[in-house]
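Quick question: who can interpret this fold?

. . .
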Amino acid sequence: MKNFEPVLIIVDMQKGMQSYKPDHRNNPQAESNIAKLLAAWRQTGGLVIHVRHMSRTVGSVFWPGQIGAEFQDELQPLNGEHVVEKNVPDAFINSGLERWLRVRNINDVVIVGVSTNNSVEATARSAGNLGFKAIVVADGTYAYDQVDYAGTLRDADVVHAMALSNLDGEYAMIMTTNELLKAR
């Protein structure tokens, strides 16, 4: 797997995500792992795509023009790095992302960001369904506590693990930051 250079896709790492209480999420190191991956990609001249959620709901923290819609300071796109805006969890829907990748003959993608069971999972499912070889970085994404359909509160670690389990082997390969960096 050496000398493999997929595109790094960073999903929804916006200031609005920082407004949620950190004691209700897992992987507190996710942002630092994403920053580590971003630095590695930049160091080798790898392609990076920053995905930003732009809400259609007036008053949302992700409404255009709100500070919450801005990228987190340490994960700001550089000139030349592609930015995709989306209105739904899946970064491939109505965003031009698939076309951008196809035009460049890119088949391999690495997905990090938030949240594991929402935008990351939706994006990884589409990537797999569209024939891309996707990797989701388990410690480069995180989830929040969530009440399930039966009304039971599920811990963020459980929500995260189930989302990764939903993806593993069928839509994406699951790796850690260190495993991925060693594979490059």
